[in-house]
Amino acid sequence: MLCYVSSTLLQNFLSHDEVWNRILLRLRSQKPDSNRASYDCWLFSEESLLVGMAGDCKSEIVPVSKIRVCPRCICLLAKLVDDDLIRKKEVAIKNALQERWPCMTEFLNTTLTDDGDICRCCVSALQDRFLDSVVGKVVNSFQSDGYICKSFKLSISLPVQSLLFMENALQTHNAAIDPIRCNGRGYSVKEIMKVYLEPILGNRLSLMAMSKGDVDLDISVTLDHKESENDLLPQIAKQYPKCFSKARKQNQYASKKRARNEPSIFNATTISKVIETMTIDDLSLLINQTILGRPIEIENIGMMRSPVYMGGRYLKMSRTLSQTPWFVGDVRISEMSVQEYITVPTQKLFQSDSCNFSSSGREDIDVRMLGNGRPFIIEIINSRQCPTKEEISTLQNLINNRTDLIQIEKLTMVEKEDTKILKDGEEEKTKSYSSLCYTKISSEYSKENILEKLASLSNMKNVKIKQKTPLRVLHRRNLAIREREICSLHISAVSFAEVQDMVSVDMEYSDMVVPFKLEITTQAGTYVKEFVHGDFNRTLPNLSTLIGSATDILCLDVTSVNVEWPPIKQ
Predict the structure, then answer these.
(1) Domain range spanning residue 33?
(2) Residue 351: which region, alpha, beta or left (left: phi > 0; alpha: psi -120 to 50)?
(3) Of 256, 289, 304, which residue is a domain's last?
(4) Are residues 50 and 80 in the same domain?
(5) What DSSP character marks residue 353?
(6) Are the CB atoms for 13 and 53 separated by under 8 Å?
(7) C-beta separation of 120 from 169 below 8 A
(8) Contact by Cβ (8 Å): 292, 306
(9) Based on the number of CB atoms within 10 Å of its own CB, is 539 exposed (0-12), middle (13-18) or buried (19 or more)?
(10) Catalytic residue positions?
(11) pLDDT of 73-130, one tens digit each?
């Protein structure tokens, strides 16, 4: 029977050079330049080991049969990068390894796992029965969710204690593996799992496996092993507290800052520190005392479709409909919103988890959006379906037929990069408005004076104004002074009868005010209402100061948002 024992243990009990020479003669067949200092762990037969060793030390000998590893872990430990070999079944891999390395036949026969054994390196993560179970569960999850896509990327998360098992197997089998170890980095457990799983999943799911670039579907497989987690991790935390001191301090700070449960101190960094700190004998004793009654398990299989985007333009014909759901405290102000009219049927069509709505600016609830409509984009999260152009056209008709309060146009799929067009448009583009305003008649400003002043202001261009954050939005926007430009404005007088056709106004005010229509084009981000009434002179100049009499706005419509949207694809 082949056995392993540390050089430290040998030095304690093998005091005669004759015994060392016997051992070295056996090892030189594997490594000609062997010497006593070159091995931390020794491999030899039980008979030669027991020569010259005290009887009470025999319990510290670790038979190879107790540290069995699977064929794919032999590839891992030997840094063997051979995708075709890894994708074979374990029996075929074992036969191939014996053919490749005939001198290792005894070692492989003694070390490799049998059916039903749990690998002491990967805890069965690389064994056929577990990998096949992963394939089955991923396929079932994919089919039950009903995803329609073309490509996928596989990610795997291993329990952190798996680092300890792998390190122990590496140190234990180091001497035997060393003569056949290949140059280079080799594969990790995750990489070997991907090499095996990706082509099988690609075939079963009819998808293209990709590791880089934009992919349609992210498939995540999270593995866990509660048995070793509950047994092994508390022991190393108790034996090596210094390795976890920094993590504990960081977690305490994070818990205070975010008011959540304390995160785990066990991560790749802390476990790596433990491995660097502990001796090979301590690691071997710790791992070999851990009973593996169950193999590694699948904790979770997650699937997340990369976000897709849809853009268009909407018109809002109501002065009581908000753009997004509007709450004051727990009280909802309007029953529906533009966002909900659009996103609810969209989410149903795409069978997505959620939808995020954004637009090029926003209008107040009492402002209509007319003309060419306001550009908007919807980020669709984890969609299962990929609607055709015809289905998207049907969706547009469905939304438009559902209500008279809004209408949408030019609904189409867009790219993520196109969102920058809307973001830039919020500050860099221009917008046009039409509003109904009035100026008060006073002893100082008669109706004739006001009409003359309005005529003189009409057709003004490129007026620079400075706007301090309006009082009505100060609760949600930073206090600042913003410079904006009135690109053009046109003022025309209207009769009081025309005013009554558009808004409800008592006739008793007909002799007290001069109504007029204001058509204005401004730099995006301009507060038009404040430009009219001045907001207690927080906007200067404003129409009140330019006319010389108190001026206010009765109603406002957005007539154009001058952004090319949706973008025209070549």
Answers:
(1) 2-60
(2) left
(3) 304
(4) no
(5) S
(6) yes
(7) yes
(8) no
(9) buried
(10) 364
(11) 999 999 999 999 999 999 999 999 999 888 888 888 878 877 778 999 999 999 999 9
